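Sequence of ABC transporter permease (Streptomyces xanthii).
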Amino acid sequence: MKFVLLRLVGLAAVLLVASFLVYGLLYLVPGGPMSFLLGNRTGTAEQIAAIRAQYHLADPFVVRYFNWLGDALGGDFGRSLVYRQDVTALLAGRVATTLWLVAYASVLIVVGGLAAGSLAALRGGRTDTLVSGVSSLFLATPVFVIGVVLVIVFARGLGWFPVFGAGEGFFDRVHHLTLPALTLALGSAAYLARITRASVREEMGREHVETARSRGLAESLIVRKHVLRNAAVPVTTVIGLTVAGLLAGAVVVENVFALDGIGSLFVRAIMQRDFAVVQAVVLVLVGAFVVVNLVVDLLYSVLDPRMAR
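Predicted 3D structure, token representation.
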């Protein structure tokens, strides 16, 4: 419980600092918040005065920050300057698509990366060479290039998957999001496969594994009890960082496949200088990243109880 409480306190501290940076950095751009609120308009003195009064720009910065933070904790991120509606409603209508995409890609990464890396380490030879070659290819290929190739081959060429939209219902969503999820997952799965391969090979050369073999234990039991469990700690770190990073990678994939998620909303908000939406999306992404890392820390304590001391 002490370990969990310390991690929760750290989580709250990180989120507090992150929220301050998210709110404050947009106020440091040339022209400050007024440049976002006015957009491309010049604005009369009366309009500027009305905007300053509406957004409380005359108040001290710290007061404005804590007012915004209090509203954000209550689920109120303000109103979009472009869409003329609550930012929370904008996010709520799009977050499901992003969560589906990230969850689907995470499953592909974990299953594919762990399986390929473990197989390469345990079997070696041509299997190892093949996995290393394919992972190098995917690691060297940009995400948008993978997406374009998948669309050309499997959507336009073979007609197996749709190009646009997120679908409705479980099976329809899986069908629509297969190509986007693969685009998002292949590079990360290749990286995880390499880390898994290296970690498993290192554990196989440990003294306790050789001791287990000398005692006549079955190889399958040695792999499960002594190799994979110990190799899981560094692999878990990579999985946590990879899954957290998918939220940022989803921005590119959502634009390639025209998915209406928070990633595509974020890109449009930056281009349209919709600072309330930018603040909300960045804070959500940072929060998700920190929460995933908290889960990874808790998994450490399960895999190796010594880390919880």
